[in-house]
Write a structure and sequence with these properties.
Length: 226
């Protein structure tokens, strides 16, 4: 009986994924980037949780924002904090993002909202928190990206596609670009991981390259590549 239940579950899972609207997303690299006004105080702000901070490596030299700095000619600000949620992001958005005059802003939130019991946010709260932050941005001056905190191989983090649907709605309602698979080439490789949800130095370098690939149209148009 247990074996039959297991077999039934194995056949049911693809059906559930299909019904939930889950599909494979690809990083967008052919969008029309904006011409930004770059000044002496312009920065690239990486705003998120431990995945941005660089948990599992040396944050100052091996996090993906630190690696990203090697390829661009303006300061990259690592505004990632371990265990942060979108609500924490709302509370520090002015000081940790807007005060840095971001020409480019990358968001990375969601995992702690869903899975950290003591700070858990509902999906509706997560979306509203994102909207609260996105409503404060001047899109004529800032190119905005939102990084999905997992990829399709990590579908168990969003089994029914609720977080993906949030990202799709935000993409439709705001001038933002979704980075769907920053994990490509890192997830599932033992030599790239620190634990289940964080990279080591090698993994973060791969993530930085994936993110750079998505940002290149904007970086090239604004002469921000070294």
């Amino acid at each position: 009986m247990k074996r039959n239940k297991l077999i039934s579950s194995m056949f049911l899972l693809p059906v559930l994924l299909e019904l939930s609207g889950c599909s494979t997303f690809y990083n967008v690299t052919d969008y029309e980037p904006k011409k930004l006004t770059i000044t002496e105080t312009s920065t690239i702000v990486c705003f998120g949780d431990s995945l941005t901070y660089g948990n599992g490596a040396d944050p100052e030299t091996e996090s993906w924002p630190a690696v990203f700095q090697e390829s661009v000619n303006i300061p990259v600000i690592n505004s990632g904090i371990n265990d942060d949620t979108t609500l924490d992001g709302v509370n520090r958005f002015q000081t940790d993002v807007l005060d840095h005059n971001p020409a480019i802003l990358l968001f990375d939130f969601g995992g702690n909202d869903i899975y950290q019991f003591s700070k858990k946010q509902s999906y509706s709260e997560i979306e509203q928190n994102f909207r609260t932050m996105l409503n404060q941005i001047n899109y004529e001056e800032t190119q905005v990206y939102i990084m999905r905190f997992y990829n399709d191989e990590m579908r168990f983090f969003d089994l029914f596609g609720a977080f993906d649907q949030i990202l799709l709605r935000l993409q439709a309602d705001y001038d933002v670009i979704i980075i769907w698979d920053a994990w490509a080439g890192a997830w599932g490789h033992k030599d790239c991981k620190y634990d289940m949800t964080h990279c080591n130095a090698k993994g973060y370098r791969i993530m930085a390259q994936n993110i750079l690939t998505v940002l290149k149209p904007c970086l090239k148009k604004n002469d921000l590549l070294k």
